[in-house]
Design brief:
This protein has about 400 residues and is an alpha+beta fold. It has two domains: about 140 residues, no CATH class; about 210 residues, Transposase Inhibitor Protein From Tn5, Chain A, domain 1 (Alpha-Beta Complex), CATH 3.90.350.10. Helix content is about 45%, strand content about 15%. The protein contains 18 helices and nine strands. Strands 3-2-1-4-5-9-8-7-6 form a nine-stranded mixed sheet. Strand 7 and strand 8 form a beta hairpin. It is globular and about 75 Å long.
C-alpha cells in the first residue's frame, strides 16, 4: 500500500522511512507529526481493518453454531498529558485532566478486530451504544456489559433478527410476558430455593422501547455474594449515600437478559457464554501491558494520535495471526493459542521485524512466514487439570475435566 493509494498527498510522509534510516534527530522527527500524518496513519488503520486472511476459519463449538458471528464490544480509557485536554478532555477533579478511550469490536469466532474508534475519555459507553446496531447483522450475537445497556438498541437488534446477551441493569421495569403484571424481582427471587431460573419477560415501560426476552437468574456462592455487598456498600459510602436495599438483596444472583431461544441456550450455559466477554478484556490488557498504548509523554496531540493508531495497527496484525492458528488448532485438535504468549513473542522480535521492514518489506514478510509457525509452538495453551477453558465449556458443557480430555483425545 502506498500513500497514493490512500489518496493522501504529503511529501514529508513519503520520505518518513528514509528519514528514519538516516537517523534524524528527535526534534526533526517530532516536527513531522502533523495533521496530515494523523490522516495518513488513520487511513492505514482503516485499510488494515478491512484486510482479511483467507485461511481464517471460524471456531467450531456446539454453543456457537447457531450464530454467524459473536460480536464483543467494550472500551478502555487511560490518562494522557494534560496539555492535550482540548482534544481529549478528562473527567477532571480527582480524575485526570485529559484522557483517551478506545472503543473496539472483537469478533470471537474468527478472532478478528473488526472495528475500533479513538474518542475522548469523557465519552460515556452508553452514548456509543447507539451505534451498535450499525455493526450487527442478522443472526449475529452481541455480548455487552451494563455500560452499553440501552433498551432501544436491544429492540433494534431483535428486530434485525440478531441476538444479544447482557447483564440485567437493576431498576429497569420487568413485566410478566404472559400476564403483563409488574414483576417484583426481590420478592420473586427470595422465594426460590434452587440455583437457576428463567422467566419470559418484557423490559421497559414505553411501548416503543419494550423488549421481550428471557430473564436468566443464577445464584452465586455466599462468598461471591458477600464480596458484591462489600463493593455496593463501598461505592455508596464514596457517594455519601445509603446502600440500595434492592441491590444488596440481588447480590445473591447473577441476572442476565437475552433473546436467544431456550433450545439454543439453557439457563446454566448462559454464564459460560457471557464469559467470552473476557476475550476483549484480554485484548485491552495486551494493548497496555505489551504494546504500552497508555504510555505517552507528549503534548503534541498529532504525535499522540499517530502513536495510538500505530499500536492499534500492530494489535490488528497480531490478532490476524492468532485467528488463523487458533481456529485451525481448535477445529482440528481442540487446542488453543494463548493471546498473551503470542503478544510477548512478537514483542521479543519487534526490532528484528523493524530492521527487515526498513530494508525491504518482502524480506520482512519472508522472515515472518518462517518465524511465526515456530513461535506458535511455544504459544499453545497448556491444559490445566483444575479448570476448563471457556471454549471447552462451550463445546463439552459442564463435564468434568477428565471427561473433556477423553473426548478431545
Amino acid at each position: 500500500m502506498t500513500i497514493g493509494q490512500l489518496g493522501i498527498k504529503h511529501p514529508s510522509l513519503a520520505t518518513m522511512v528514509d528519514a528514519i534510516k538516516s537517523r534524524i534527530s528527535r526534534e526533526a522527527l517530532h516536527q513531522r507529526f502533523t495533521k496530515s500524518s494523523v490522516d495518513f496513519i488513520h487511513r492505514c488503520a482503516k485499510y488494515v481493518l478491512k484486510q482479511k486472511i483467507t485461511q481464517t476459519v471460524p471456531i467450531k463449538a456446539k454453543l456457537l453454531k447457531h450464530f454467524n458471528r459473536v460480536m464483543i464490544v467494550d472500551g478502555s480509557s487511560w490518562a494522557v498529558d494534560s496539555r492535550v485536554a482540548d482534544m481529549f478532555p478528562g473527567a477532571g477533579g480527582a480524575g485526570s485532566a485529559a484522557g483517551c478511550k478506545v472503543q473496539a469490536f472483537y469478533e470471537y469466532k474468527r478472532g478478528e478486530l473488526s472495528f475500533f474508534e479513538l474518542t475522548a475519555g469523557t465519552r460515556p459507553d452508553n452514548n456509543y451504544s447507539r451505534q451498535l446496531n450499525n455493526h450487527v447483522k442478522t443472526n449475529d450475537l452481541l455480548l455487552v456489559d451494563l455500560g452499553y445497556f440501552r433498551l432501544q438498541t436491544l429492540r433494534d437488534i431483535n428486530t434485525k433478527g440478531a441476538y444479544f446477551l447482557s447483564r440485567y441493569p437493576i431498576g429497569v421495569s420487568l413485566f410478566d410476558a404472559e400476564t403483563g403484571s409488574l414483576i417484583e424481582l426481590r420478592k420473586k427471587l427470595s422465594s426460590l430455593p434452587g440455583d437457576a431460573y428463567e422467566f419470559s419477560v418484557v423490559m421497559g415501560c414505553k411501548k416503543e422501547k419494550k423488549v421481550r426476552c428471557r430473564l436468566i437468574c443464577l445464584r452465586v456462592s455466599e462468598e461471591a455474594a458477600n464480596k458484591r455487598r462489600r463493593r455496593v456498600r463501598k461505592r455508596a459510602k464514596q457517594r455519601k449515600r445509603a446502600p440500595n436495599p434492592l441491590r444488596l438483596a440481588l447480590c445473591d444472583w447473577t441476572l442476565m437478559i437475552t433473546n436467544i431461544p431456550e433450545s439454543w441456550l439453557t439457563a446454566e450455559m448462559a454464564r459460560p457464554l457471557y464469559s467470552l466477554r473476557w476475550q476483549i478484556e484480554l485484548f485491552f490488557k495486551q494493548l497496555k501491558s505489551v504494546l504500552c498504548i497508555h504510555h505517552s509523554n507528549t503534548a503534541n496531540v498529532h504525535r499522540l494520535q499517530c502513536e495510538i493508531y500505530g499500536k492499534l495497527i500492530m494489535a490488528v496484525f497480531i490478532h490476524r495471526i492468532h485467528s488463523v492458528f487458533n481456529g485451525c488448532l481448535w477445529n482440528s485438535r481442540h487446542r488453543e493459542v494463548s493471546m498473551d504468549k503470542l503478544y510477548k513473542r512478537i514483542q521479543e522480535r519487534a526490532f528484528v521485524i523493524l530492521r527487515f521492514m526498513l530494508i525491504s518489506l518482502p524480506k520482512a514478510c519472508l522472515y515472518l512466514a518462517a518465524e511465526i509457525p515456530r513461535l506458535i509452538k511455544n504459544c499453545i495453551k497448556t491444559r490445566q487439570p483444575s479448570r476448563k477453558t471457556s471454549l471447552e465449556i462451550l463445546e463439552y458443557g459442564m463435564k468434568t475435566q477428565t471427561e473433556v480430555y477423553q473426548m478431545a483425545v
